[in-house]
Amino acid sequence: MSVPMLLTPMEAQSPDEHMQNCAAFADGAALVYGTGNELESAAAACKPTLREFNVRLELPLDPEERLGLTGDAKALGEWQLSRSVPLESLDELNWRTTVPLQSCRQLEYRYFVYVEDRSGYKQIRRWETHFKPRSLGPCSELQCSQLDVFGITNDNSDLKPQVHRGWLNHEVILQLKFNGEKMFQVHDIETFDPQHVQLKIVPVEQTAGLQVEYTKQEYGKSQLDQQPTFGVPYTKGDIIIFHITLPLEKMMQQHFRLECYSMSNELLGSASLLSADLTGSEGLLHLPIKSAKDAEETLARLRLPYVVVQPYRYSPLDFKTTYAHYWPRSWPSLDVGHRGNGKSYIADAPAERENTIASFLSAHEHHADMIELDVHLTADGVPVIYHDFGLRTAPPGKQISRPDQLEYVLIKDINYSLLKRLRIFSVIAGKVVEYPSHNAEPRPEHRIFPTLVEVLVQLPKSLGIDVEIKWPQRRQGGGSEAEQTIDKNFFADKVLHQVIQNGCGRPIIFSSFDADMCTMLRFKQNIFPVMFLTQGETKKWQPFLDLRTRNFMAAVNNAQAFELAGTAPHAEDFLGDNAPEMLQKAKDLGQIAVIWGDDCNSKERVEYFTRIGATATCYDRSDLFMPPAKQEAFFKSPALMAEFAAQCRI
Predict the structure, then answer these.
(1) Integer Cα distance of 499 and 468 in angstroms
(2) Which of 299, 340, 487, 488 is an S-S bond match for 360, by CB 3.0 to 4.6 Å?
(3) 47-165: which CATH topology?
């Protein structure tokens, strides 16, 4: 015998339906309680009731902001933003609403702060991000009222609000980035000194849902904030990013003015910026700064990088749960297999080729908790796994004896069907070595260029995955790691779509060396954590142009600014005596730090990075360097796996 289905209040549209619903509850209760007085009490307890939700804020909302409510009941919108319930303001700190719900119903719900644009679309400014939503049991006639404090639940042992920014829905983010060393070309230093200037972005026309914020990145003070009246003080070497949120439909119609003030708050000049001038997801604006005294006089010229973050283009996301900051401090330091069981295009290579399913499984066999893999997009939009931006190849049948006989092609320029047919070469110690192409390898798990979908489907869910998004970086000395012509939003959406559709129910984290890609991944979705991957202060490679990539603390500051889960810094940053203190600074901001690099590749170094406080260590050769005492991968626990089940929304 099964328990009858209960309707929610919104589903029970008539008094008869409400009575049927209560009768169904009584029938179900009979299976548990039996008959008699207990059954009569159960039926009486289940009836349509106006449940009152009262919320107190710690700080008043901005004038255009409102408080919303959503939850797992139909009357609460079933976690959907578009169907959420608005609350009414009683005063600047107290809000209330009443919702028709069954008195017997166990509820889960969350609160959020939003603004509404002129088209009626809601933008999520902030929302409660506890791993488990609020819960509410059945109520009686005498007690159907709920009093909550925004951001704080009974699970908050330290009584600190757990609230984060929302994800994009019908709005976009435009970031204007002062993140380089040579931003201004000045005509007269006496008239305009870029070392002593205050910067402010002003919308020429205000509209509902338009907000301008900024981050001036400094340890512990990098959160996005409102602009000062006379702008943000800037000098060479500062990292200042203006973060502009605006309705999607206004994206190509907005006009901004960059105002430049002296340190004594005098308007020196300004530059005009039309959103229609923005081409693609990212680019470089060349802006003349015109004198405030003489509009014909150009004080300076500004090279201003920008990035546009569009909302995730596939199915809408919801409030049900989030893993974006889910990394409990009770977890041990984890072991991450670099490219699976390690780099393979080297002299002393493991048996399995890197970034293949066989390599990932080998790492897991040797108790790796997670593996790191590298994702590219092919010319026809297929996310594939490979490390380098391109590959060395040669025509079929051609004899190759020297490196200069090889061609180098970029993955972005090749369709997946062709990629699987290409011959693959590497140059090791000056010697040309050929490897089996994808199609020539008879063992499926050993094939090069597996798709991201194949990896997600075939790997056990108990093996966590660090999905690194490959995006070429501009170097400080000029040039770029590689050419990239694929649109950045398109790239991010393609990868996110595959992971959301096929990767749920397991530990997954995104990472990228590209700070803007990390920002995109953070604001396009609310399910998975994102960490900023950096090479830091190193002698091994040329520094990147973006100042946010240059050292560990710059990465930590950027992670704080855009609410990333943390960073993946290079091991070379942590070989000095101050390494534990550096990692503690990240922990003090609630961030994780996954250390990677060749300097991790020994048992002694794995133990060292664990001891100084690394959240995880990413290294080659799990078969050689895994801690000897480790008997099993951490996520093989059924209880842990159950915690990730709520990621699956389809």
Answers:
(1) 12
(2) 340
(3) Immunoglobulin-like (2.60.40)
Cβ within 8 Å of residue 612, ≥6 positions away: 574, 579, 580, 583
CB atoms within 10 A of CB 489: 21
Residue 7 CA, distance from chain mean position: 36
Question: Partners of 163 in the beta sheet?
Answer: 128
Range 18-40 average pLDDT? 42
Parallel, antiparallel, or unpaired: how do β-strands 370-377 and 464-469 relate? Answer: parallel
The CB density around residue 313, as the number of other CB atoms within 10 Å, is 13
Distance CA 204, CA 270 (A): 12
Report the distance separating Cα 218 and Cα 239, nearest Å.
Answer: 8
CA distance 103 to 546: 56
- Both tokens of residue 151? 């951001």
CB atoms within 10 A of CB 69: 22
Q: Write the CATH number of the domain with boundaries 334-647.
A: 3.20.20.190
Q: How many CB atoms lie within 10 A of CB 150?
A: 21
Burial profile 79-107: b = 16 or more Cβ within 10 angstroms, e = fewer: bebeebbebeeeeeeebbbbbebbbbbeb
pLDDT tens across 609-636, in order? 999 999 999 999 999 999 999 999 999 9
Buried b vs exposed e over 271-282: b needs ≥16 C-beta within 10 Å? bebebeebeebb
The amino acid present at 531, given as its one-letter code, is: M
SS3 433: strand
Same fold, 171-309 and 334-647: no
User: Per residue in 117-143, pLDDT tens?
Assistant: 999 999 999 999 999 999 998 887 656
CATH pick for 171-309 out of 2.10.50.10, 2.10.109.10, 3.30.70.270, 2.60.40.150: 2.60.40.150
Residue type, 49: T
pLDDT digits (tens, 9 = 90+) for 78-100: 999 999 999 999 999 999 999 99
Q: Is the pLDDT of residue 37 over 90?
A: no
255: alpha, beta or left, given left = phi > 0 and alpha = psi -120 to 50? beta
Alpha carbon distance 369, 361 (integer Å) = 11
Domain limits, the chain: 47-165, 171-309, 334-647
**For the CA atoms of the chain, what is the radius of gyration?**
28
Mean pLDDT to the nearest integer, 221-240? 97
What DSSP assignment string belongs to 88-119?
EESSSSEEEEEEEEETT--EEEEEEEEEE-TT
